[in-house]
Design brief:
The chain is mainly alpha-helical and 191 residues long. It has one domain. Helices cover 36% and strands 6% of the residues. It starts with a helix and ends in an 18-residue tail after the last strand.
Length: 191
């Protein structure tokens, strides 16, 4: 079996396991009503983070079938390699030094809407920020409120590596796209 097929198979198996674990760990019953008091807002955010699979990448061990709930949402040192370089799932806990504790709820929501972090850098793949951008303001504020409410975990994830760079740790490599999937570029202006 070639390397890309093996990696792809392992990724699919890991994703299925992670989804099953996330489903099993998700709060059961009806989600909290949107809006209302702070507790209901945070509970709604927790529900959304669970069903959207945020922990799949951002909680250590989840892609290996053993999510570490003591370090929930504290980021990962598993790299995602593709045409963008190598990116890492960031620490989403409110640790002020290594997480998102220095962002306001509004700044987090703006990041979800635009795919740009408050410091002006883009959220890199595989972060599905376009999916988040389609959510309601109420849901995005609930997610942000929940993220700011979880236990802070001090964990500085590796810095992103630009295209052509290397990382000595483990990576999931996304191969170059086939012609059908390649991003299209606008035609050059003939004027």
């Amino acid at each position: 079996m070639n390397k890309h097929r093996w990696l792809g198979t392992m990724f699919v198996i890991a994703a299925v396991c992670a989804s099953a674990l996330a489903w099993a760990a998700a709060p059961k019953g009806k989600p909290a009503a949107a809006g209302g008091d702070k507790a209901a807002k945070v509970q709604r955010g927790e529900y959304l983070v669970h069903i959207m699979g945020c922990g799949d990448c951002h909680t250590p061990g989840t892609l290996y079938g053993a999510p570490d709930t003591d370090r929930k949402l504290s980021g990962s040192e598993l790299g995602w390699k593709g045409p963008w370089g190598i990116s890492f799932a960031r620490n989403l806990t409110p640790d002020a030094e290594t997480g998102i504790g220095y962002y306001s709820e509004d700044e987090i929501v703006q990041s979800f809407r635009t795919g740009m972090k408050p410091n002006g850098t883009p959220m890199l793949p595989p972060m599905p920020w376009p999916n988040l951008a389609a959510a309601t303001d109420e849901d995005l504020h609930a997610i942000a409120a929940y993220l700011l409410s979880v236990k802070p975990v001090k964990h500085a994830v590796p810095e992103n590596v630009p295209p052509g760079g290397s990382w000595a740790g483990p990576v999931i490599e996304i191969p170059a796209p086939p012609a059908w999937d390649a991003p299209r570029t606008p035609a050059a202006d003939s004027h």
